[in-house]
Amino acid sequence: MQKNWYRLDTAALLFPAISRRDWCNAFRVSATLTEAIDPVILQRATEDLRTRFPGFFVSLRKGLFWYYLEESSEPVTVRSDYAYPLTFMSSRELRKNCLRVLYYKNRIACEFFHSVTDGHGGSVFLCNLVARYLERKNGLRVPREGFILDLTEPPPPEELEDSFLKNAAEVAAGRREEKSYRLHGSRDSHGFKTLTTGIVDTETLLDTAHRYRVTVTALLAAVMAESVIAMQAEELPRKLRRPVKITIPVDLRRLYGSQTLRNFSLVLNVGADPRFGDYRFEELCSTIYHELCAKATPQNMAGMIAANVQPQQLVLLRLAPVFLKNLVMNAVYRRAGESGGSLNISNLTNLPLPQIMLPYVSRLEFIIGPQRSYPNNCSVVSFSGKTYINMIRNIRESELERRFFSRLVELGIPVEIECNRR
After folding, report:
1. Where are the alpha helices (DSSP H) in 118-201?
2. Total structural domains in the chain?
3. Which of 87, 141, 196, 350 could crosslink 382 through cysteines, CB 3.0-4.6 Å?
4. 181 and 146 share a domain?
């Protein structure tokens, strides 16, 4: 029986090429329910999603010229969440499945290799998995609205398309950016990732953002930039400092009306250069907000898309064997891939669930792992009046978290702190 296979989308091409023995680009979305998870029912619910979401039940394969995704012959086996979030996905595991479904007490978690999808696509998958689980376990009849899809229908072609190819400009934008300051510290043993979660009231967070006339994402980026600027100032004299830029993913579906469940986001680096002088917090908020607004336009993003699409259309690169492509992509990534940012803030905003599901779900979360070349990252999601700010690191030093959450409290945003390290 012939298996279905999928070309990697434009963003996904990069991730297998830059993976290392101790790092690959993955993320997690999870839902905490009001009662303990039944793993047998969760396994059945997972299997129920295979036909509707074929692009998620795939393995990573290596061809002569490109990596590609192939329909997996291995079932996605539900497992106990036994360790810390986002344990390393080895190449051996990815050759079987690029998706994990995990459970722990009341929590269902899905972890995705980033070549499969982005935060939006992962959220759609999780919401449908939780809905199907509740249908099987509690007999709910969840309406097909928002992120909840009809599992009896085949996926429309739009969900499986590479939307980058459709929306690239004819002229590519330049890639060059000055290198940003990077945090550093002592790597944790055995690859352990420390997760610190700050839980805040969403209305209070919104009110504070409105007080500074910015979005929540811009407010959090300003707090993060201020914290990193202060840490750099304690380490280096002004002449030796670097720009501090926060990397913010932009969901391009909102700009172009795409329905794809594959990757369709690009990142913008926004912040300030402390070599030019000190910034008041209000100035950081305004600078970051207006820079985001100026850059996140359909025209500018189309030029950035073209910068990623056009190289893969070059005849010489298309004919080059995959190992040579990996060398080229690694070289480009080291020069420009992450160098323009200090760390990420990825905000999924508010995830919509049908009203009938709300009594059964107490919490949703989104976690991205540390990047290849910097040790800290931050991801944000809001649900049912609470916003969950997840800060993850692979170093022992916790100074960034201390400064960031303390500053939120100073701004009048009370924070409840949780951590997976005692």
Report:
1. 119-138, 157-160, 163-167
2. 2
3. 350
4. no
